[in-house]
Amino acid sequence: MVARLVSEVTGDTATVRAVAARLDFAQRQGLRALPSPLPSVPEIDALYESVQLADRDRDLLLAVALHFSDSLEPILAIDGRTAAELASGPVGDLIEMHAGRIRLIDPRLAIWLQARTPGSDTAAVHARLHRVFLARGEQVCADWHAARSSASPSPVAASELIRTARILSQAGRSGRAFQIAGEAASHTSGAEHDEATLVAGVSAIAAGHAVDAVRLLVGLYPDAAERHRLQGLGGLLVAQACVRGAVPELDAHTFTPRTDDLDDWYSWTRASALAAFFCAERGDRRGMRAWLDAMREGSAKVGADRCLRDPVVALSWLVLGDRDIDDVQGTGPLSRGILGALHAGMEGDFDLGLRLLAAWDTGMAAEVDPLVAGFERSPLVAAYRAVVEVLLLMWRGDIGAARIRMMRAAVALPVALPFAGLGVVITRRLDLAVLGRLGPFARALTAALPTPQRIDRLVDRGIEAFLAGEEDEAIALMRLWHDRGAPRPALSVPGLEEASIERDEDPPRSAPIEPPEIALARRLRSRILNLPGQEWRAERASISEAARTLRSPFTRGRVEAMIGIRWIRDGEVAVGRDYLAAARHLLEVSGATAWSRAVESRIDRVDAEETAPLAKDPLSSSRRVWEAQLTARELEVAMLAVEGASNRDIADALHVSVRTVEVHLGRVFGKLDVRTRVELTILAHRIGG
Fold this sequence. Notes:
Blueprint: H1 2-9, H2 13-21, H3 25-29, H4 42-48, H5 55-66, H6 72-79, H7 83-88, E1 95-98, E2 101-104, H8 108-116, H9 119-135, H10 139-149, H11 158-170, H12 174-185, H13 190-206, H14 210-217, H15 226-244, H16 262-281, H17 285-302, H18 305-320, H19 332-346, H20 350-362, H21 379-396, H22 399-412, H23 422-435, H24 440-448, H25 458-467, H26 471-483, H27 516-530, H28 533-547, H29 553-569, H30 573-590, H31 593-611, H32 620-626, H33 632-642, H34 647-654, H35 658-672, H36 677-688
Antiparallel strand pairs: 1-2
Helix pairs in contact: 1-2, 5-8, 5-9, 6-9, 9-10, 10-11, 11-12, 11-13, 12-13, 13-14, 13-15, 14-15, 15-16, 16-17, 16-18, 17-18, 19-20, 19-21, 20-21, 21-22, 22-23, 23-24, 25-26, 27-28, 27-29, 28-29, 29-30, 30-31, 32-36, 33-35, 34-35
């Protein structure tokens, strides 16, 4: 939405905000198409309030703003002047002509002109354009302008517009197809109206305009021909899932074809497949199973077991979190490209996954995908591809490259829709990794997330606090997240394992889909965090050796940082600092600038503690080291105990009961792997010394 506004009103922030304020909520989310023309606002009116135009010049500029294509010759035919005369005349500074094309230099002029021109005058310009294009034999352009010029339904133009919309939709120009088919629907009735509505509706969801798609496709029920209802069923279920957050609770057999027409059965089967996949995205296991059963029934009837059934079953179970899937080879960008890329990523072969996705950019792998036949090049399918590509880059450790790719995709594609908002989660984590806070892209995509879809913000807030050095706050947030059931996407996105309270022996609440080395890193982090002192000293060499096998600089850098912190906590400051320095370099190479800065800050604190006079505060080093392990109250109790205070003295100082002090002190002993106050005091002074 923002990209469209910027392209049509330029990058002027005040104007973009003013126009956005005139849009409804669904339009601002990108779930409904922007109006054409965009509403004029005072900021645009102020630009042209002093412009004086002759009627002929005004009509010329209006024709440029309205005409179906950007070709120069039709405009010259309407106006009667040559290109040289236009360039040297009063409108020369307002238009740009190059290589047989013409456009307005400032797109805001088109908004201003259409807002100031009466509807009858606009219709007259459309009528003139219709006659010019008709004379030139350009039927589609002629039909478009004929439809736009008519105040009453003009069914003559509809059939050609519908055909054109289908062609544009298959070429990936779903937004334009939606616009043209919608215009055709407004000029027809009966079966042709249903056909136009169908094309407009499925083009709308392919462009990401889910609200428009629901509005259009639901109009096919219950009275449209069964062929149209079945062809629109898949798009309607997808659109409703995007708008409402869940696939509607329906019995698939309610829509079973009443004839033996295989085309109708195929439409029903594909709709069931789409419903199953979207149920899986949203964690609806029961709904997925029901729709998969319907799809299997239909696939057997139309002979689509291998090309449709098998890939959809594999893809659905994969996005639901099931690792035990067969290596199925489908066709097309979703059933082959995305499924194959995710499968390769699960095996740790990120380069193969990226190559499978890249095949669809070349146009050399233009296979039909039975699941999204006719929409292989649509913005929605491209958004799925972009989200998976960014996820693979994250898994590979290319954080900076992943963020740039996501930012580019977000400008042109509805990346908030795939995998029930996974792209939003990824964008937020990438912003935090690079900036240390949520940037404009993450905030915009979060706002664009369909209302029923929610993401857990506790992990993001925890990461932000951790990177800012507020480790107690980060640990508290992660505890809250864990108490809520540790919700996370089925496809693993890096979180804040540094502050995790899970242990290896804890039963996984939901096993994420992730490559082997990210699973290894999770196990290493758990061991670093939770091994008692004696076991840690026995295993730290093997842990360090295992960390060196991690190929992702982002993953390895974070593990190396945790190893360094553990060494420092045990009083081995020089060794720990070396690990931190290596971690800083790895994180910098990955492009995770904020993580690198956080490690740099910890190194600075270690250096400051090492060079500070011990007489100033001999326990400052232990205080700093223990901050990462203990809560604020546990740290207070520990430091008072080290200073020689009795349990009663500590209780009085902190205004708590003696029993509470005993509980806190017991937790301190467990976390720091000591058994008595004496051992705690010795450890504190060993760190400080």
